[in-house]
Design goal:
Length: 445
């Protein structure tokens, strides 16, 4: 599936078998798909914990759907004439059944499929969230990968605009919790309903036909298939012609207008600053009415950290009962870049690292470590032998707050040497029974 990698591993054209004997090519991760190693994963975990806490505060519940779905789900939901479906999906034929399958490029389609399949909204509307990998065959660069991760939030069965506002208020709270409120701003727009978009489309096509010389190749092709998508072009050369295009916002009917005004009133009431950006359209076709993006200046061209909107027609389009809904996706990698940029380094350091030498000391070390863990304290017990000096080096490298030192002498007296590693301080002897209280006091300091 990978292209562009220096070494490609292909099966033999005739036998379909991989030749693995005598193969010296280095095995490496697929281009655009990243490993997250423990130092960095600590920041991921802290971020994910903060996100899950906020979701719970608003009553959103976790749901999980497969990473692989039948290809037509995405084509019907996202739209055949979109970047994602035209060129970014990892699609393959299942070897055994022959059916066409796709690694999910986004989460909403699968969630709506699952909601229809299990009649999830039969009794009441549902607030749900999902986390996991998404796959798009894009050109890898900072903030843009081929496997990336999202938190995805969906309110299913709500006509809004109260839930539209709720999701933006929820994200504003998350930015505050993370200390990022000053670096991320909100843009909103309304792209109306299907009839309003049809009327606007005619005006848009007429306008772009008059300016066809200024369009790039992609946009010229889109002119008669999906002209709204031209507005989403990131081509700087087309900025001016896009600025001058007729605005859908000027053509909204009374209901869409009332919805959009309702949303703005709720955001104002909550004290959330926002811009109305009439050029804002999103890359997937299922959206209607409210669309929104949270954008930062600190990640270059990949500045959109979260984006979403309403998709009131998607359930019906996928064969379900009409169910109004609103949701958004948040890119985890971009949030991690932003958090790191803001100085939020990874931690994952234990409270204590236990060094020990001698059989009696090792037995006491095991007992002490387990009893501290019983109290919820993170403890690394040295493994692999070695003298005190080399063990102390490992204790320091673990970034633990304390080294707990146990030799034969300590074992005999039933005490543990407590040595602060992150601040100045002498080693002190602490009785085993007093150890939890001593470390807890240090942890609170
Ligand atoms: P962009 O305009 O940057 O291409 P998008 O409109 O395609 O983003 P969505 O499909 O709405 O993005 O996905 C929601 C979020 O997922 C984005 O705001 C971004 O944070 C993240 N995201 C999207 N594509 C990628 C990618 N290839 N790599 C990393 N994160 C991504
Ligand atoms: Mg994109």
């Amino acid at each position: 599936m990978s292209t562009g990698a220096k070494t490609t591993h292909r099966p033999d054209a005739e036998t379909g078998q991989f030749n693995v004997t005598g193969q010296s090519a280095r095995l490496q991760a697929v281009r655009g798909m990243n490993d997250v190693l423990p130092d960095e994963a600590a920041l991921w975990e802290r971020f994910e914990d903060a996100v899950r806490r906020v979701f719970a505060l608003y009553g959103y519940r976790n749901l999980r759907v497969p990473i692989v779905e039948q290809t037509p789900l995405f084509v019907r939901a996202i739209g055949a004439v979109t970047d994602v479906v035209e060129k970014e999906m990892y699609t393959f034929d299942d070897k055994l059944s022959g059916e066409s399958l796709t690694l999910r490029p986004e989460a909403t389609a699968g969630i709506v499929r699952a909601a229809i399949e299990h009649n999830l909204c039969y009794e009441r509307p549902q607030r749900v969230w999902l986390a996991g990998p998404m796959f798009r065959h894009e050109r890898p660069q900072k903030g843009r990968y081929r496997q990336f991760h999202q938190f995805d939030v969906e309110a299913l069965g709500f006509p809004g605009p109260d839930v539209d506002a709720e999701q933006m208020i929820l994200l504003a709270r998350l930015w505050r919790d993370l200390g990022l409120a000053d670096s991320i701003r909100l843009s909103i727009n309304s792209i109306g309903d299907a009839a309003e978009r049809r009327a606007h489309r005619a005006a848009l096509v007429a306008y772009f036909e008059r300016h066809e010389h200024a369009l790039d190749e992609d946009s010229r092709r889109r002119l008669h298939t999906n002209p709204l998508r031209i507005l989403d072009s990131k081509n700087e050369a087309m900025r001016e012609v896009i600025e001058g295009a007729p605005k859908l916002l000027d053509r909204l009917g009374p209901e869409s207008r009332a919805h959009f005004e309702g949303l703005q009133a709720l955001l104002a009431e909550a004290g959330i600053a926002f811009d109305v950006d009439p050029r804002l359209v999103r890359g997937l076709d299922y959206y209607n009415r409210t669309v929104f993006e949270w954008v930062t200046d600190r990640l270059g061209a990949q500045g959109t950290v979260a984006g979403g909107g309403r998709y009131d027609g998607l359930f019906e389009q996928l064969g379900g009962k009409a169910t109004p809904a609103c949701g958004f996706g948040m890119g985890i990698e971009r949030m991690i870049l932003l958090l790191r940029d803001a100085g939020g380094g990874g931690s994952g350091a234990p409270l204590a690292y236990v060094v020990h030498a001698g059989d009696a000391a090792a037995a006491l070390a095991r007992r002490v470590a387990e009893s501290l863990r019983d109290r919820g304290m993170a403890v690394v017990l040295h493994a692999g032998g070695g003298g005190f000096k080399s063990q102390m080096k490992k204790a320091d490298a673990s970034r633990a707050r304390y080294a707990l030192v146990i030799g034969d002498d300590e074992a005999a007296r039933g005490v543990v040497g407590v040595k602060p590693l992150r601040e100045a301080g002498e080693q002190e002897s602490v009785a085993v029974d007093a150890l939890p209280a001593r470390l807890a006091a240090g942890a609170d300091a």
